[in-house]
């Protein structure tokens, strides 16, 4: 039985410089990025979602595919026209950064976003990748908040590193609990 990998995101503060950082983990692959880079990546993922959604709509509309009747046999001229329109749209839209692409899953009939880094390539459905982008934004904001709190406490109070680390951990746990409670109540 193979274990399915999950994509995790967490906030961090770099030791020494106390810069806000975001850590992304997928299996054994760990990527650390600045909070600003995480925000930029999240925005690019949101843009890829919009591209993938619009490509799916265009393709389905131009080929006459409806969610109720599925693919069936697409007339070659309709398929050729749909591919040509999608190519034209892709050629004229703002490029996505390296490692992020929007596609229409021909077999699944769903818009998809592909994320790539190092030797990792993940194809995700829109809802899943939207959650990932949201997690990147939340982790970036949390990292900036943690960095500010750490610098404030160390600059204004006579605290040992271990005391600040405990405070930071409790603050992060409280933030996480509050977010979870707001999701449950909402």
Tally of separate helices? 4
Major sheet: 3 strands, antiparallel
C-alpha Rg, in Å?
21 Å
Shape: elongated
Order of helices and strands: EEEHHEEEHH
Helix and strand content put the structural class at: alpha+beta
Number of domains as seen in the coordinates: 1
Distance between the termini: 37 Å
Rounded mean pLDDT score: 87
Within the largest sheet, what's the order of strands? 1-2-3
Q: What does it look like?
A:
The chain has helices at residues 35-63, 76-92, 126-156, 161-185; strands at 7-13, 20-26, 29-34, 100-105, 110-117, 120-125. The mean pLDDT is 87. The chain has one domain (7-185). The chain contains four helices and six strands; from the N terminus they run E-E-E-H-H-E-E-E-H-H. The chain has 186 residues and is an alpha+beta fold. The two termini are 37 Å apart. The strands form two sheets. A three-stranded antiparallel beta sheet has the order 1-2-3. A three-stranded antiparallel beta sheet has the order 4-5-6. The chain is 55% helix and 22% strand.
């Amino acid at each position: 039985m193979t274990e399915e990998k999950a994509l995790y995101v967490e906030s961090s503060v770099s030791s020494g410089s106390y810069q806000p950082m975001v850590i992304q983990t997928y299996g054994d692959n760990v990527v650390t990025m600045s909070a600003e880079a995480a925000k930029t990546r999240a925005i690019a993922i949101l843009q890829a979602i919009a591209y993938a959604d619009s490509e799916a709509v265009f393709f389905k509309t131009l080929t006459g595919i409806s969610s109720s009747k599925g693919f069936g046999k697409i007339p070659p001229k309709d398929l050729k026209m749909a591919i040509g329109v999608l190519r034209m749209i892709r050629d004229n839209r703002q490029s996505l950064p390296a490692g992020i692409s929007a596609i229409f899953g021909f077999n699944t009939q769903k818009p998809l976003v592909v994320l790539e880094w190092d030797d990792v390539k993940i194809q995700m459905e829109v809802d899943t990748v939207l959650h990932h982008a949201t997690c990147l934004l939340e982790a970036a904001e949390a990292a900036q908040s943690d960095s500010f709190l750490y610098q404030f406490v160390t600059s204004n109070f006579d605290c040992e590193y271990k005391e600040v680390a405990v405070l930071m951990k409790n603050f992060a746990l409280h933030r996480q609990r509050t977010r979870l409670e707001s999701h449950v109540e909402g």
